[in-house]
Design goal:
By secondary structure, the protein is of the alpha/beta class. The protein has six helices and six strands; from the N terminus they run H-E-E-H-E-H-E-H-E-H-E-H. It has a single domain, classed as HUPs (Rossmann fold), CATH 3.40.50. It is globular and about 70 Å long. 32% of the residues are buried.
Length: 194
């Protein structure tokens, strides 16, 4: 009896894992036509949405995800592919403010303050995508983040009828644990709930 229970649990775990991996691959396939890795081929849109992340890890080391997103925002802005940058992120604590940190770094790098809009309620990818449509009253914008994050953001956008594209910036080399987390996030967003 106990062996049968363990075997059934093992089969259920395998099925959940296979479903999560299959869903992740399907989302990658469905969103691939809307992801650009070369800024020269990126279509022009009025708004570029930079999805937030912490500037530093808890250890005090620079977060490479953050640095690549900021550089991607600068590339898109300086090449004229976007006119405005919406910085969407978390500011749940007084000492932690993703949009304001991104704003400071982008202004320091030469972005005009008038071309930056802050979204302090981008607690989740879903929030950032939905709020971009509301804040800018636009149904077509560029999302700026890493490729694995582009896939989830575009899946959400397309499911909601938003014609977004994504500029996929580089990812750090050691991102296996993040990729596993993303598979779980894909499963958590299936189906989309707002």
């Amino acid at each position: 009896m106990i062996k049968r229970v363990f075997f059934a649990l093992f089969i259920i775990i395998l099925l959940v894992m296979a479903t999560a991996l299959g869903l992740d691959r399907w989302i990658s396939w469905k969103t691939a036509p809307f992801i650009y890795e070369d800024v020269a081929s990126l279509p022009h849109r009025q708004v570029g949405v930079v999805l937030g992340t912490a500037k530093y890890y808890r250890t005090g080391v620079y977060n490479q995800y953050y640095l690549y997103r900021i550089q991607g925002a600068l590339n898109a802005y300086n090449s004229g592919k976007v006119n405005y940058l919406l910085l969407s992120g978390d500011n749940a604590q007084q000492s932690y403010n993703e949009p304001m940190t991104m704003r400071r770094d982008l202004i320091k790098a030469g972005v005009a303050p008038a071309d930056i809009v802050l979204d302090y309620a981008g607690f989740r990818t879903l929030d950032s995508i939905v709020r971009t449509r509301k804040v800018f009253d636009t149904n077509d914008f560029i999302i700026i983040t890493q490729r694995f994050h582009c896939e989830r953001a575009l899946y959400i956008a397309r499911h909601l009828g938003i014609q977004a594209q994504c500029y996929a910036v580089p990812s750090p080399k050691n991102m296996l644990s993040v990729r596993f987390r993303e598979v779980g996030a894909d499963l958590a967003h299936w189906p989309i709930s707002t």
